[in-house]
Amino acid sequence: MFIKKTKLVTFVLLVVLVLSQTVVLAEGVESFAVEIVGSGVEKEIKLTLDNLKSMPEEAQINEEYIYNSKTREKSAMVKGVSLAYLLKEKAGVTAENAEVIFEASDGYEIDPQTLEDIFNEDLKYVLAYEINGESIDNDDNPDNEEIVVYRKQKEPGEFSTVFKMVVKITVGEAVESTEKAKPVEEKPKVEEKEIVFTDITEKYAYAAKAIEELAKKGIIDGVGNGLYAPEREFTRAQFCKIMVEALGYKQVEYTGGFTDVKAGDWFAPYVQTAVESGLFEGYDNGTFKPNKPIVRQEMAAVVGRGAVLAEVVEQARMDKFVMEKSNYKDKDLVPEWAAHQVAWLEDQDVFSNVAVEKFEPTKVVNRAEAALIVYNTLFRK
């Protein structure tokens, strides 16, 4: 009799355990990382990070993913769960192909994906819960459970293979697979311009490579007749241009926000783009002062913001760098609004051959220094 009761209790506990797991994966979950819904699945599910981590071994992915930022190719060790596995084994997808929509918690618009791509074993879509050995926190709220979706590149140099802060995945109705895809015509490669400046003397040899590389990419220009004029000062408007070009931003139309910038000015769209992206700010009196020479503390603040936008460094990490630990003798002269950027850039040796013992925050930057600082921050490997 005792043995029968024991078996009965064990059976009941087993049923309760199974049911409780089903609930966690299906409904009644108050806090979750991502949900999978839509007419293209038999069962809508909500998944917590613990759900993902407890998936069977065949569902887990722990691999290096290569992706492209605006300035360089990067890689990350990604740990997570196969999206194809979740759709097939947990959500019961009902089609071989359908439109799949990723929704981000910050409202960032993500191009529609297809089941055909997601089921492509070469692309390996993964719901990542760990990147480079660390948990994910892109919204600066550690209490929120977050995942990032990665996929492999279809071709080298491809963009948009990382999707951050995805909270909802919607699978639409089945669509007919397209017939054999037509080969994509390769776009002719844009050859980098071979530019030689005759005035890069020994005095400016420290910036020669930076000037050459940025000129090849069309980010900086000379002043004509084979000259770069490395000794000349750099204005705020000129630095708007170099940063917009360096980050690969498309110029936007000037909306007339500053009293000293006119729509017909060559720099107007660069100013608008730089301000909208958060690189630059105007002055309290409504001016931008486009022709004002830029000084070191301003340039440091701008390239530091550019490094964050280009995903060279995360803002949270940059904020940990402080001038108190700087080696510059005049570190107390660096204003608070540029302190984190200057400290981080110093740590990255960006100011090599420009600022050695002192930073001299209000010193005007010349064209050689401007090229070196931008190159060292965004393009140096």
TrEMBL record:
Q: Which domain of life is it from?
A: Bacteria
Q: Which InterPro entries match?
A: Cell_Envelope_Struct_Comp (IPR051465), OxRdtase_Mopterin-bd_dom (IPR000572), OxRdtase_Mopterin-bd_sf (IPR036374), SLH_dom (IPR001119)
Per the database record, which ranges form the SLH domain? 194-253, 254-317, 325-381
Pfam families given for it? Oxidored_molyb, SLH
What PANTHER family does this protein's entry cite?
OUTER MEMBRANE PROTEIN ALPHA-RELATED, S-LAYER PROTEIN _ PEPTIDOGLYCAN ENDO-BETA-N-ACETYLGLUCOSAMINIDASE
Please give the name of this protein: SLH domain-containing protein
